Amino acid sequence: MPKSIVVNPQDVRKPEILKIKDIPVNQYKSDIKKELSRYGKDKLIRIWYDMATIREFETMLNTFKTQGAWQGIEYNHKGPAHLSMGQEASAVGQCVNLTTDDYIFGSHRSHGEILAKCYSAVWQLDEKKLEAIMKDFLGGETLGATEKIPYHGIKDLAENFVLYGTLAEIFARKAGFNRGLGGSMHAFFTPFGSMPNNAIVGGSADIAAGSALYKRINRKPGIVIANIGDASMGCGPVWEAMMLSAMDQYHTLWPQEAGGAPPILFNFFDNFYGMGGQTSGETMGYGVMARVGAGVNPDNMHAERVDGYNPLAVAEAISRKKELLLAGKGPVLLDTLTYRISGHSPSDASSYRSPEEIKLWQDADAIASYGNYLVENKIAGQNELDALGAKLKEKLLAVVKLAVNDEVSPRLGGAFIESVMFSNGKVEKLEDREPELSQPLAENPRVKALAGKARYGFDPDGKPVSKNKAFQYRDALFEALAHRFAIDPTMAAWGEENRDWGGAFAVYRGLTELLPYHRLFNSPISEGAIVGAGVGYALSGGRAVVELMYCDFMGRAGDEIFNQASKWQSMSAGLLKMPLTIRVSVGNKYGAQHSQDWSALTAHIPGLKAYFPATPYDAKGMLNLALRGTDPVIFFESQLLYDMSEQFEKGGVPETYYEVPEGEPVIRKPGTDLTIATLGATLYKATEAAKKLEAAYGLSVELIDLRFINPLHYDPIVESVKKTGKILLASDAAERGSFLHTVASNIQTFAFDYLDAPVAVVGSRNWITPAAEMEQLYFPQVDWIIDAVHERILPLPGHTPVTVQTTLDLQRRNRQGV
Length: 818
Known about the structure:
By secondary structure, the protein is α/β, with parallel strands linked by helices. Helix content is 39%, strand content 12%. It is built from 28 helices and 22 strands. Strand 9, helix 11 (311-326) and strand 10 form a beta-alpha-beta unit. Helix 2 runs parallel beside helix 14, helix 3 packs across helix 11 (311-326) and helix 5 runs parallel beside helix 7 (153-170). The radius of gyration is 30 Å and the shape is globular. The two termini are 50 Å apart. The model has no long low-confidence stretch (mean pLDDT 96).
């Protein structure tokens, strides 16, 4: 039975006054004895060294960008360099008490975060482990270049490795951490817990939330930190990520052994600016940013402002928050006060800030202040710090010489980029352990009920099987999902209304009984976070299935689909995998904002696979394919088809496991005179049209179901056109910009010599989708297809069109923009 939480009106209507807990602001008190006891002398000095390294590294980048040379080395760095000079204490302090099991997801201003996290790992790991990581990474290519620099021991070599791997990445070199495909804003190194950094402001928030879900659901060690700026507080996905991370169900509905809330810390590097906008006093109204935690949950998200100009204050705060997170008491919001003395980028003259303000912060410089603190407390002498500064400059000079050398550090070619757009993996399960199920799959009520269903839509006499006796499209999807849930222990699914009542379209009915809460759960109405969390979950090592209830809601999750899910495999040079399936229902009858087919959008975005099954057989076989793969798949499902039985495969939908060959269209009916190819539910209108064309006009129609958007194999389509000489394409997507126009263009390229008529495309009107009562005016109908054949491909003897499908009318519509 579903677990219900009663909302009692007597409780919620009673008068009371909410009292907000106190939010600490800059409460750290320096105590050198405690600090020395906790960290030791060497580590306290090392913190200064790491900060100074980051400052020198970014000074070098800035000099190259503004002057074209540094230390006598000329180099034209064409790419971006968003600098964090001034923020070094925040980055280094954050990593002092983190391990390699703790993940950091950053922003476009992340050079310091990468170096700090990786240097922290170098401190912690023993030499054998360090050496093994460096040798294994990219087949030792990055290490091979790094070894050209003189070094003293493995730790010193590892520092060079980190500096070179990061700089080579920024300079788009093949031996960079992501082979130059991530660049300045996306560099990362997962073996040390430095996770993907994001060029989109606030873009890491919901991805990090998904990574934290992965850790919690799969009982993995460590916490996850989303490093985002104060200006990202204006970004919807950031709020969505916080809401997803703060759901009460982690404590009220999930099994106690799951461990509580996902271990995520939203760390806002609060430097008071978002590009040229001043968050303090201009674009935000919170005063102290930590205040916003009070709006998320009764714990204020354990929000706190910490002095990010003191690395030890940051380190102590992170340590305390980590304890809370590991205990399942998150999420946490940290307002880390800092400042960038550099512009947003080297081209930014900081005209929006007064010179007086910048000087005030320069005078309070964290590196100088912390160095003075060490000297005053006799932890280090000034000569020692100066010597360390000279050492790191010498080290960086050697690294730069390698990174700008085209022979030592070459770049990739296009063939490699093409090779990492998809991973094309096939994995039964992403972790070798028993999946957590609430019951054996064979005992599931829906599994038992489906055993008695007719798996072909017609009885032996050719009569349609009644809907309540027929195995339906939604049942096919259920079987594929249940199969993979019972095999892959990492697989988890979430979205709006997924649990308890079977989802909006009854696909998930039965999974409530099969799965514990942490493997199938309802999310907030937060489409960005739904998909973004799926991205983070998948790239962290799990399999995620997320649902968008309507195709129209892809707009809400646009960045997560088009900039995140689609790009991380290729931007990581294939180091990351993205086993993410995004189920998207294509609607009808609910009007203009719930009834659109946006499949063309996914066709246009590199890095996405897109499937669109139109039959129960394909629904199961193609979802099986998606759920064993390692690529992001947008899986379209027409709401018109959820109760459809299998009409084409006479053997019916197999009870056993099978997959549909990826990218292969299928011939639903052979013919010799005309090819009609469809995508989605229009298959059934086209089937009816084909019957009428044959009965009334003797036209033998070959009917092809494309099934796939990307990848798509054109050979079967071209072979059909070679035979028939004519083709019409139809789908329910709005005609203008439809994916079918890409198909039409390719057919004319591949089979021009065999065409006896122009390729015709029939789609929905370029209007808003009207009310259900008027949908016959909007979606392609049987008569539209027949009339389009008559007007644009082949005159039909004695045919009188009942709709207007002429080329002149197409021109009229385009002229008017409709």
